[in-house]
Design a protein that fits this description.
The protein is globular and about 50 Å long. The strands form two sheets. Strands 2-3-1-4-8-9 form a six-stranded parallel β-sheet. Strands 6-5-7 form a three-stranded antiparallel β-sheet. It is α/β, with parallel strands linked by helices. A hairpin with a 5-residue loop joins β5 and β6. 48% of the residues lie in helices and 16% in strands. It has eight helices and nine strands. α2 crosses α3. It has one domain: Rossmann fold. It binds zinc ion.
């Protein structure tokens, strides 16, 4: 199955993407990991991507699509994939559909992990990251066993400087304007699966998992509680 994950910042896309990947054996492809990998590969495309990133610029859509196309052609993507962080605009979503059609494949579903804006702000404020492995924790929903220590690698946990209320409000404003319409784009083509994200991580994953299994069985879109 080929999926994209949607949701406000703080909705838990990265965490849920990682879990689906583990359970279903398909790769979880976040924009960040894809950018790091293409730059590390030393390819021509990698140096083009690096020239934008190192100047702090956004990667133009046409280059992002080429990068994605190369990634999705890799062997591990043959039975499906989960995209996280792309598309961020309706233009990108349309571009993605057109590109996949050229490749003879299609995006099956968009999973929208729904949380309110107020909840998104609370979560961003309570997020802690591992300096070593990048694992994300949440002080309430996914706390580390030991304060300030990563369960996975014993690295130090910290709060990113931009994980505060003011920056969160700005990010949410941009998200609602640019990215939220992507939800409607997928709903219009009957591919939107809406998941209640305002629960503990385990319960959200149970919802994701049920949706995934139902879709494999029936191929019908809809809402999962
Ligand atoms: Zn760690």
């Amino acid at each position: 199955m080929r999926l994209v994950l949607l949701g406000l910042p703080g909705a838990g896309k990265g965490t849920q993407g990682g879990r689906i990947s583990e359970k279903q054996g398909i790769p979880h492809i976040s924009t960040g990991s894809m950018i790091r990998a293409v730059i590390a590969s030393g390819s021509k495309l990698g140096s083009v991507v690096d020239s934008y990133i190192s100047r702090g610029h956004l990667i133009p859509d046409d280059i992002a699509i080429v990068m994605l196309k190369e990634r999705l052609r890799m062997d591990d993507c043959s039975t499906g994939w989960i995209l996280d962080g792309f598309p961020r605009t309706v233009a990108q979503a349309k571009h993605l559909d057109a590109t996949l059609m050229q490749e003879g494949i299609k995006l099956d579903y968009a999973f929208d992990i729904r949380i309110s804006e107020e909840e998104a702000i609370r979560r961003i404020e309570q997020r802690r990251m591992c300096r070593e492995c990048g694992e994300a924790y949440h002080l309430l929903y996914y706390p580390p066993t030991q304060q300030k220590v990563c369960d996975k690698c014993s690295g130090e946990l910290y709060q990113r400087p931009d994980d505060n209320r003011q920056t969160a409000l700005q990010r949410l404003g941009v998200h609602m304007k640019q990215t939220h319409p992507v939800v409607h784009y997928y709903a219009q083509s009957g591919r939107l699966i809406s998941i209640n994200g305002e629960r503990e991580i385990e319960l959200v994953f149970a919802g994701v998992d049920i949706a995934f299994s139902l879709l494999l069985d029936t191929g019908c879109a809809g809402e999962v509680r």
